[in-house]
Fold this protein.
Amino acid sequence: MRKTKRKMLQRKQTVFLVLAFILTCVCLSLPIGTFMPQSMEAASVMFNLWIKLPDGTYNHSVWPMFMLLLMSCPVTLMAIFAYKNRKSQSRICLFSMLFMLAWYVAYAMFGFVFPSIDNASFLPSLVAALPLVNIILLIMARRSIIADEALVRAADRIR
């Protein structure tokens, strides 16, 4: 009888990590805020890579936010495929959470502290909440990974 090795890609932490990856990709492509000018001009729309100005040009001053989310994508994929080593998978999740927290710091800096458009108020988009949902999913995945590791250690003690 042939024994097949079962992969642990069907674990619940994998679902959380895949959802976090998808949400990161969605946040990369959708607008995350709007600069509303004081005058009657058209609004400028802020994406992670650029700000689309009313005249159709792009201001690329917000590219660090794009890079933080872009670097988070392969880190989350690494966490998905590091299922054989739960300790490193847990650390990778923590590293991805740090990228999301750094994204929020950059978001606050570019949107509220140093706005790229003069005399404009910043209105955040609902899409800007996706990295927060991402952080929650990564926390849930990390807790599941730690629980799996504790379960394996308990089973090893019983043997």
Notes: The CA atoms of residues 3 and 24 lie 38 Å apart. The chain has a mean pLDDT of 88. Strands lie at 33-37, 44-46, 51-52, 58-59, 120-124. Helices lie at 12-29, 63-81, 86-113, 130-158.
